[in-house]
Amino acid sequence: MYLIDLDDFKAINDVYGHSAGDAALVTVATRLTEIIQDRGGMVARLGGDEFAAIIPGSGSEEDAQAVGAAMIDRIQQPFMHDGILLTPSASIGIAQAANGPDDNGDTLIKLADYAMYQAKEDGKGGFRLFDAEIGAHVARRKELAAALPFAISNGEIVLRFQPQINLETGALKGFEALARWDRGSDLLQPNEFIEIAEESGVIRVLDFYVFEQSARRLTEWLDRGSPRLTMSTNLSARNFETDDLPDAIARILEKTGAPPELMVLEFTESILIANWESVTGTVSQLRKLGVKIALDDFGTGYSSLSYLRKIEVDEIKIDRTFIADIEQSEETLFVFDNVADMATGLGKSLVIEGIETQRQNEIVTAHGGQIGQGYLFGAPLLPEDAEEMVFKKDATRTAS
Predict the structure, then answer these.
(1) Measured distance CA(153)–CA(109) in Å, rounded
(2) Does residue 201 lie within any of the structural domains?
(3) Is 138 contained in some domain?
(4) Which of 84, 102, 130 is the last residue of a domain?
(5) CB 94 within 8 A of CB 68
(6) Nearest to 282 by CA among 251, 310, 253, 241
(7) Beta-strand (E) ranges in 69-215?
(8) Which residue in 191, 233, 194 sits closest to 214, CA to CA?
(9) Which residue from 49, 82, 115, 378 lies 20 to 30 Å from 60 (Cα-Cα)?
């Protein structure tokens, strides 16, 4: 069983139009049919941008890998559509009869699906055979998915606070609150459970929990005489699928007493692609509450240049990939300069993520960076360590 899912297919529709997306589907279907029929098999479209293929017989793993490689090679060959050069990409999961407890087709589809998602996690544009490692990975994800709702209600989700620094003055500007899952002997990082939370639908509860806990922390510091620092938290795309997000945020602000103007909600630009009109309407309602809005991981998606001037955000967070080699690369510096000019020219505050060296700090500051975040200024801190940083005399005197 071969399960084929096109990579970033929605972006093709959004950037080039639905006719381009339809052309990509037809082209991929034709190419898969050629490969599979030559081997005596059959291929079908399951729906959307997903296909399934079977080849009768008990081929070896080597045979399956050869077919997977042939599919990837053929799918990724560029083609022209209405004067546009399109290059499809796909992730493929492969399961053989020997992988399942029986010859049940539903079982094979499920195992191939697991393998396909692993191929996407590996970086897309490739294939994976279902194996014991993937099986263990799937079992682990199921375990975490079942435990996560109880972890939130039992206080196992703990916060770490990464400093954000005013690059001009060196003063503490605020923090980004980041979730960790404390399982006793095991402290899970966000990349180990956020995607699981999104798939299971728990992400809304998790996001609101983090927002409320960070708001309470900020209110406590302010009541004790801290400077007016900002507090940033992340919002998943799932929160924009319903229209109750502004009401939920308003209730938490009222409950915690946190000043709205000091709370910053971050979301990634990929959300804009999903539903532009709905997202912009929700963002407008959130800003009416007084909270600040930040566009996170700027430049890593498809929407940046076309939507930046239209979206009502207060901060642009430039992804770390924009400065990783800025010390050595004139090209990187050129790109950074232009992105910084564009963001600041539109009146957005510019937050630079991933600053790790003093030289990076000097360069981004000289070229328009306003707020810095990264290991040069501090790793995500325990609450008590963040509090110590907040109430240092220097921080209190110079914070802005």
Answers:
(1) 34
(2) yes
(3) no
(4) 130
(5) yes
(6) 241
(7) 79-81, 84-86, 90-94, 127-129, 157-166, 172-182, 187-188
(8) 233
(9) 49
Taken as a whole, the chain contains a residue count of 400
Residues 72 and 119 occupy one common structural domain: yes
CATH assignment of the domain containing 58: 3.30.70.270
Residue 392 identity (one-letter amino acid): K
Parallel, antiparallel or unpaired: strands 127-129 and 90-94: parallel
Nearest CA to 295 out of 353, 250, 242 is that of: 353
Question: Do 60 and 158 lie in a common domain?
Answer: no
158: β partners: 180
Helix axes 18-37, 61-75, angle to 10 degrees: 150
**Residues 284, 324: one domain?**
yes
pLDDT truncated to tens, each residue of the chain (400 aa)? Answer: 999 999 989 888 878 889 999 999 999 999 999 999 888 899 999 989 999 999 886 568 888 999 999 999 999 999 999 999 999 999 999 998 766 555 556 788 889 999 998 999 888 999 999 998 998 988 898 899 999 999 999 999 999 999 999 999 999 999 999 999 999 888 999 999 998 999 889 999 999 999 999 999 999 999 999 999 999 999 998 898 888 999 999 999 999 999 999 999 999 876 766 567 778 889 999 999 999 999 888 766 544 555 666 778 899 998 888 888 999 989 889 888 888 888 888 888 999 999 999 999 999 999 989 999 999 999 999 999 999 999 985 443 333 2
The CATH code of the domain that includes 364 is 3.20.20.450
Rounded CA gap, 112 and 101, in Å? 14
**Residues 317 and 298 sit within 8 Å (Cβ to Cβ):** yes
Question: Are both 277 and 179 inside the same structural domain?
Answer: yes
Distances (CA, A) of 125 to 25, 116, 283, 378, 383: 16, 10, 34, 35, 41
How far is it, in rounded angstroms, from Cα 14 to Cα 306?
A: 11
What proportions of the chain, in percent to the nearest 5, are helix, strand and coil?
Answer: 50, 20, 30
The reply to whether 126 and 177 lie within a common domain is no
Query: How far apart are the C-alpha atoms of 205 and 121, rounded to whole Å?
Result: 25
Distance CA 95, CA 111 (A): 6
Domain count, the chain: 2
The tokens for 24 are 């990509």
- What is the span of the domain harbouring residue 379? 147-398
Cβ neighbours for 281, distance < 8 A, ≥ 6 positions apart: none
Given a contact cutoff of 8 angstroms between Cβ atoms, the answer to whether 115 and 94 are in contact is yes
